[in-house]
From TrEMBL:
The lineage of its organism: Bacteria, Pseudomonadati, Bacteroidota, Saprospiria, Saprospirales. Residues 169-231 form the Secretion system C-terminal sorting domain. The keyword Signal applies. InterPro entries: Secre_tail. This is Secretion system C-terminal sorting domain-containing protein.
Length: 244
């Protein structure tokens, strides 16, 4: 009898929590990541994601507000939702001063990632930061608080892949693809534009050609990622179309 009552209590409590968040559920409300990285990389960032699922019947339009970082003073943070990857200066996707009114939308039964990027700028340490969520219809009513934490530490020289110092990207500038001369211990490549928006992701293959077709001309950053160690190196490539 006691077990049945406890089960009923937890069931009612869980349903009440889902109702309070308007049908939204979260992969975690306290996401943590331990990141051994190469702190000499000036473009390094550490991503900590939380997945939001809309289990309700209505489309969710969500506002987020980033609170102050509790961590090293040199660190920065930025937020990526399914609309955009925002600059460090943006603390909310609803900000009249910046002329921002961009609630991110999750349709019923769909999922979306809300990612915190920690930018260590060469400094190891532990940082914690929270996002407060609200619905666009009631932007001042907090429905959930998501907590992100990153423990960023430098890879010891003995374990750092010294061969990465000889990595070269070619052709550069490129019209439609690029290659990389060596990909020791690299699992995948991520292509960002200069604003930090993720444009494409590639599986690393020796001798592989990584297509830039369909992208606007300009400068892009190519992050070389090891699944265990994080970003080992970031390279630049210029996409330059053929002149008529």
């Amino acid at each position: 009898m006691k077990h049945n009552l406890l089960f009923a209590f937890f069931l009612v409590f869980s349903l009440a929590c889902v109702a309070q968040t308007g049908g939204l559920t979260f992969s975690s409300t306290n996401a943590k990541k331990d990141a051994p990285v190469d702190l000499t990389d000036p473009f390094l960032d550490v991503q900590v994601p939380i997945t939001i699922t809309n289990t309700g019947k209505d489309t969710a339009k969500i506002i987020w507000r980033r609170l102050s970082l509790n961590g090293p003073s040199k660190w920065g943070t930025r937020v990526c939702d399914n609309n955009n990857c925002y600059d460090e200066i943006v603390s909310s996707n609803l900000d009249p001063k910046l002329r921002l009114n961009e609630p991110f939308v999750i349709a019923p039964g769909k999922k979306a990632d809300l990612i915190m990027y920690f930018l260590p700028y060469g400094t190891a340490g532990t940082g914690k930061i929270s996002l407060h969520l609200a619905f666009a219809a009631k932007p001042d009513t907090v429905i959930a608080s998501l907590n992100y934490e990153a423990n960023i530490r430098s890879i010891a020289t003995s374990t750092r892949d010294i061969q990465q110092a000889n990595v070269q990207l070619f052709p550069n500038p490129s019209t439609d693809y690029f290659q990389i001369n060596r990909l020791d211990n690299i699992d995948h490549l991520i292509l960002y534009n200069v604003l930090g928006r993720k444009m494409r992701e590639y599986t690393a293959q020796e001798g592989g050609r990584y297509r830039l077709t369909g992208l606007p001309d300009g400068i892009y950053l190519v992050a070389l990622v090891n699944d265990q160690k994080g970003v080992l190196r970031t390279l630049r490539v210029q996409k330059k179309g053929l002149r008529p």
